Automatic annotation (TrEMBL):
This is TetR family transcriptional regulator. It comes from the Bacteria. Keywords: DNA-binding, Membrane, Repressor, Transmembrane, Transmembrane helix. GO terms for molecular function: DNA binding. It comes from Compostibacillus humi. Residues 21-81 form the HTH tetR-type domain. Residues 44-63 bind DNA. The chain crosses the membrane at residues 69-87. InterPro entries: Homeodomain-like_sf, HTH-type_Tx_Regulator, HTH_TetR.
Length: 220
């Protein structure tokens, strides 16, 4: 197994906090590869089983349906992607460390943190992006994580920076939408749409920060 493939599985195990049997780990690994390459609809449990080196019936001993296997992979990824705003350590750094005591500092830490996650887990992100439009379970989890968990913490950060910076009078929800869509656009373009382009990643991160910051700046 190549190192990048190991990273996917390690991330998934870390997300789910479940101990998988060796055969189940092989099934999950194979499913990630096949779903990423072909999409859920075109993937077959027979192909997943062959790639995992197990009998097809073994899959159904662990997962009732192919969709159950997909959901077991995708839903935890949503939580993992949102981890920075769910982690107390991350929020404490926003409010306490000098280098994060600006909106730029928050954006820089957030983008670099998620850059590394996406870089190490491209197949998982591809599956999430491919399937979110077709499965209500994925949509509901995405909405729950960002509305109930990320939004309140982002509002805290916005109110914190309103006291010291000239931010636009946009609702916090609008600021989060603009921030997430820009960061996702950068990461998806960088790692999925144009992964082989000669990007200068450090410059692109700074350009992204500048773009978001200027968009959120209030009128002088």
């Amino acid at each position: 197994m190549e190192q990048q493939e190991k990273d996917w599985l390690i991330e998934l195990l870390d997300i789910t906090e479940k101990e998988l049997t060796p055969k189940q780990a092989k099934i999950v690994q194979a499913a990630i590869e096949v779903f990423s390459e072909k999409g859920f609809a075109a993937a077959s449990t027979n192909e997943i089983a062959k790639r995992a080196g197990v009998a097809e019936g073994t899959i159904f001993r662990h997962y009732k349906t192919k969709k159950d296997l997909l959901i077991s992979i995708v839903l935890p990824v949503i939580y993992k992607f949102a981890v920075p705003f769910l982690a107390e350590k991350f929020l404490n750094e926003i409010f306490q460390k000098e280098n994060l005591d600006t909106m730029d500092g928050l954006l820089r830490k957030l983008i670099k943190n998620r850059y590394e996650f996406v870089k190490n887990n491209v197949p998982l992100i591809k599956i999430l992006l491919q399937e979110i439009a077709y499965h209500s379970e994925i949509q509901e989890t995405f909405k729950q994580v960002f509305v109930e968990k990320v939004m309140p913490r982002y509002k805290m950060a916005v109110e914190h920076f309103r006291k010291t910076e000239n931010l636009a009078a946009f609702p916090a929800e609008t600021m989060l939408r603009l921030t997430i869509s820009t960061i996702l656009g950068f990461l998806v373009t960088r790692f999925i749409i144009l992964p082989d382009y000669t990007w200068d990643d450090e410059k692109e991160i700074e350009y992204t920060i500048q773009f978001i910051r200027n968009g959120l700046k209030g009128n002088d």
